[in-house]
Amino acid sequence: xxxxxxxxxxxxxxxxxxxxxxxxxxxxxxxxxxxxxxxxxxxxxxxxxxxxxxxxxxxxxxxxxxxxxxxxxxxxxxxxxxxxxxxxxxxxxxxxxxxxxxxxxxxxxxxxxxxxxxxxxxxxxxxxxxxxxxxxxxxxxxxxxxxxxxxxxxxxxxxxxxxxxxxxxxxxxxxxxxxxxxxxxxxxxxxxxxxxxxxxxxxxxxxxxxxxxxxxxxxxxxxxxxxxxxxxxxxxxxxxxxxxxxxxxxxxxxxxxxxxxxxxxxxxxxxxxxxxxxxxxxxxxxxxxxxxxxxxxxxxxx
Length: 302
Known about the structure:
Elements: H1 4-29, H2 32-35, E1 36-41, E2 45-47, E3 76-78, E4 80-89, H3 90-94, H4 98-125, E5 149-150, H5 156-167, E6 183-186, H6 191-199, E7 202-203, E8 213-214, E9 222-225, E10 237-240, E11 249-254, E12 260-264, H7 271-276, E13 278-291, E14 297-300
Parallel strand pairs: 1-11, 5-14, 6-9
Antiparallel strand pairs: 2-3, 4-13, 6-10, 7-8, 10-14, 11-13, 12-13
Helix pairs in contact: 1-4
């Protein structure tokens, strides 16, 4: 039988260690770092009103031409607080059923990463209603060549059109951003079609005497499949340029308030433990996910 004193001195540090180790492993395996920019800071908010205002190189003739980072826009990203908590019967501790406890602790760590990943993907999926730094939705027709939205289903033609459109996006000075798409994001429903479009060496035509031909899309984009593009989002597809410092979605991570796991087990110090004979394990994190650089994404919203 394990005493609560032993639990607090030996097992509680082990719970924290298991949590942080599982969290680090899951974060390394996650998809979101491949499609989103992780920005770190120590303030309640980040100011991104200057995001699209980049000076262009010019021949140095005469004095420098200064371009201010400040704009009339006001695009601030505020963090939010999240939690996930579980209760463990005190008897399980006393009976040393640690094999039941530790997997649940690791599941809490996995959930913390899973929640972030879902938030990143659904931000893209809801891009027609979420404004970014220029005051317009992340996915919208900004006029001229700057239309990063279509209602066409995923196909060879629509994918080629998306790639060509992104490479023609221009900034507020009419200069091409130099976008080079490198990633296609889809859900499980479109996974096999996306593989055919990007991995098949030839396009096979059916019927008559039609001749198959080389697939020019082969190897043109990396494929990312997300389980969060399901339900109402299952036909959505996104072409991304993930080479940029700021991508289509950003994650704001607080460096001064890192994710924490708290264990409450002393019945003399905690009323819940005393009244319910339960040990409490809780996770808390502060972060934000936000629409970023519109010119790094082209969305098929059906």
